[in-house]
Amino acid sequence: xxxxxxxxxxxEGDKELFRHIGNVMCCGPLVFKKCPKCNEPxxxxxxxxxxxxxxxxxxVSCQVEDAVENGxxxxxxxxxxxxxxxxxTLNIDSIDDYIRQTRRRINKLRAAS
Length: 113
Ligand SMILES: [Zn+2]
Hints:
By secondary structure, this protein is an alpha+beta fold. It contains three helices and five strands; from the N terminus they run E-E-E-E-E-H-H-H.
């Protein structure tokens, strides 16, 4: 299990204990997390969290498929937007392709309905 160490007070603990505050830069690999002991922001490498984000991306793409299946195209587009945001971190080409293809699919389905 991944642990994070605070460089201010030396507290070390599971990454779940450190609350996510935000990104250091809008699309950079670093994020701020909050130390549970001294409440100071700790900078973490996003690579550690990549696995989690990949899991989320997988769940989100299932939501997209469900929404398309149900003909809820607005929801599908909204969830695709979330997937797009997640992929700003992951930078996976196949996800980009998936987003593009699904947008096209939605437009086609919408035009046909
Ligand atoms: Zn600390």
